[in-house]
Amino acid sequence: MDDATGRPVKLDVSDVCIGYRDRRSGSFFAAVQDLGFQIHENEFIAIVGPSGCGKTTFLSAVAGLLPIAHGTLELNGAPITGPAEDRSLVFQQASLFPWRTVAANIAYGLEAQRRLDAAGRQRVADLIELVGLAGKEGKYPRELSGGMSQRVNLARALATDPDLLLLDEPFAALDAQTREVMQEELTRIWQADEAGAGKTALFITHDVPEAVFLADRVLVFSASPGRLVESVPIDLPRPRNRDVKRSPEFMDQTEYLLDLVMRQSGLRQEVES
Ligand SMILES: Nc1ncnc2c1ncn2[C@@H]1O[C@H](COP(=O)(O)OP(=O)(O)O)[C@@H](O)[C@H]1O
Ligand SMILES: [Mg+2]
Fold first, then answer.
1. pLDDT per residue as tens digits for the range 239-264
2. Which among 149, 234, 147, 155 has a CA at the least distance from the CA of 190?
3. Cβ–Cβ under 8 Å, residues 164 and 87
4. Is 206 in the pocket of ligand 1 (CB under 6 A)?
């Protein structure tokens, strides 16, 4: 299945409902509903929307950690039935193994997949270089700053060359300056990581400028239950660096999206009234 541009569909989301059942009453609560869109190969997608609109719920379902209650959720044409090696997850809090060094943390996925051969070790070494951790490979997580920990987390997720990279507010816990650096680093890594050249990303954030800076397309979710409100292509040229944030195109798209997101959370009415 191809889109108009001829790129293969990576993730097909059609009429999806995902929710939670209350254990006591047995009643079902829909966190996302009537959700439908497609993500194509090599697309970097950002999802924004008000808090509680089901972004994490949706990402968990794509990761295979939550079942869908209704609809179709397909990766490469096959239904998602559980977690698998073709997807890597990065959360807000770096979840590193405290007893493993930086290098051993990054190697973890390859090791688990019995792929830590000469090529695997080279991949780990390349990634350490790529994410700017050269000289830190022997350190333990407790010796790292928040930004460094998220670099390790990112490198670990990239190490297995996942088909789909899932990121849930990975920079939200970082201070503003580190966050800015990491956004730039992620685009650089994304553009430079040749081994993972065929990768696709789903990046959740509530930071609209971050979404515009990183993404090829921004999906805006409505307030709970989350539905797709609009899909906004970001046509800023690549490679991007922080200078792009001063361009009129960046500011226009950011303002447009901020307005859209604020309408979803009902904030716009408050501001206007
Ligand atoms: N494990 C859970 N059990 C029951 N309800 C949940 C659970 N996780 C999230 N929810 C609810 O689902 C809705 C969507 O949550 P979430 O996906 O975390 O939103 P977001 O990531 O957009 O902030 C919220 O109303 C939240 O309270
Ligand atoms: Mg969330």
1. 888 899 999 999 999 999 999 999 99
2. 155
3. yes
4. no
Which residue segment(s) compose the domain that 58 sits in?
9-86+165-272
Q: What is the 181 CA–ligand 1 centroid distance (Å)?
A: 29
CA within 13 Å, CB half, 171: 22
CA 7 to centroid of ligand 1, rounded, Å:
33
Q: Is residue 3 part of a domain?
A: no
Name the 3-class secondary structure at 131. coil
Does a structural domain hold residue 219?
yes
Q: How far is the CA of 57 from the centre of ligand 2 (A)?
A: 7
Instruction: Tell me which residue has its CA closest to atom 5 in ligand 1.
Output: 20
Q: In this predicted model, what pLDDT tens digit does every residue of 202-216 receive, in sequence order? A: 999 999 999 999 999
Cα angle for residues 104, 102, 97 (degrees, 5° grid): 70
